[in-house]
Amino acid sequence: xxxxxxxxxxxxxxxxxxxxxxxxxxxxxxxxxxxxxxxxxxxxxxxxxxxxxxxxxxxxxxxxxxxxxxxxxxxxxxxxxxxxxxxxxxxxxxxxxxxxxxxxxxxxxxxxxxxxxxxxxxxxxxxxxxxxxxxxxxxxxxxxxxxxxxxxxxxxxxxxxxxxxxxxxxxxxxxxxxxxxxxxxxxxxxxxxxxxxxxxxxxxxxxxxxxxxxxxxxxxxxxxxxxxxxxxxxxxxxxxx
Length: 241
Prior knowledge:
A 7-stranded mixed sheet has the order 1-7-6-2-5-3-4, sandwiched between helices. 44% of the residues lie in helices and 15% in strands. The chain has a single domain, classed as Glycerol-3-phosphate (1)-acyltransferase. α6 links the parallel β3 and β4. The radius of gyration is 17 Å and the shape is globular. It is an alpha/beta fold. It contains 10 helices and 7 strands.
């Protein structure tokens, strides 16, 4: 990944500081006594901003006014690649974490970012473990934590085209009776999935949320289809301009 090399080179002088602090924040059992969630999230945002600057990535964000006033909501973006979460981390005003597939814990640095965010690791091959993760997410959302879930289950390899959204991904949000926020991502795949190191603008649109009263009579597959359609509509609108 040429762009990843550029990110490291441009941040060479500050890399040791961020690297060793990230290791401490993500692996030390005592860090939680020294840093609250807001402080950890602010630190991860610093890393993300340095990465985006180094990689010549600009995040064009819209719809921040659509985010719920109170914490305890779940965001459902379309999934384009490894950079999706980093895109959201730079601009999101409230701390959030991620429900992620366990395979991502094999990727250095990205693993540490997820550990620092106290992300929930899901084994998609283990139904019982997946249900436990959903129940834990439900509990944490009710306590006021915000989550990101990629309802496609895996990244699309067709640019800004979406895969089907899985109804099961919405079970935790429905159990928590929390706001569901559709998120449209455009061109995030260009950061790592192309060989170019030219500047990239990633477009991020927070769409109007669904509140419990809006979806309480819908099945999860119906919610999934609705969220997918809203994202597709926004992507078509942006690409048509």
